[in-house]
Amino acid sequence: MSTLYQVIMENNHLINISIWVVLIISVFLSKDSPNVQWLAVNILFARTLDIALYEPALKLGGWFYLIMATQNLLLMALIIKRKQVANYIAQLNLSFISRFAQRSAKDFSLTPNELTYILILASAALIQTASLVERGFRKLTDFNPMFIYDAYPSLMHILTILSVLVIFSLVIDAYRGFYTRRDSANRSSPT
């Protein structure tokens, strides 16, 4: 067992909680950008689910990979279908939640950072699906591949670091005003 693997496994919960705290800060820093704030809230929701489900799912064997891949695919869908989801929530008349959703739907735009985040989520889901298939080979045949199993913690750790960097980039851009209607209008007018 490699040292990196031990560090990742021993600190996975701490890593997830740290990301969770950063996401809460991101929600407040991106207050002027409904798009970025909506994304941060969705990722915060997914991370909360991840923190709650990770340990119990880990004990379920192959179901772990299916649960984690499904979670990544659902977050991808929430990002890609944000306008439709936000419009639906806006119609529910849930006080500030509906107003927040309405602002996000009205100012909808898919940013390059979000596309990168979607690619990271798709990569994670692909690795998790490949892990499930590899596990199936181990359980159903005499063939005992451990390629993805051995690399899984390191690969997921790398994707987690990349996703945090993308989120930081997105929030910094939002904080600087890149994703507000006011700023985009100023940038498009000749100086």
Describe this structure in words.
It is elongated and about 55 Å long. The chain contains 8 helices and no strands. The model is unreliable at 182-191 (pLDDT under 50). It starts with a helix and ends with a helix. 82% of the residues lie in helices and 0% in strands. It has 191 residues and is mainly α.
Uncertain regions spanning at least 5 consecutive residues: 182-191
Tally of strands: 0
Give the averaged pLDDT, no decimals: 81
- What general outline do the C-alpha atoms trace? elongated
Please describe the structure with a list of short key phrases separated by commas or semicolons.
191 residues, mainly alpha, disordered C terminus
Detail the topology: elements first, then pairings.
Blueprint: H1 3-29, H2 34-58, H3 63-80, H4 82-90, H5 96-106, H6 112-140, H7 147-175, H8 181-188
Helix pairs in contact: 1-2, 1-7, 2-3, 2-5, 3-6, 4-5, 6-7
Write a concise synopsis of the structure shown.
The chain is built from 8 helices and no strands.
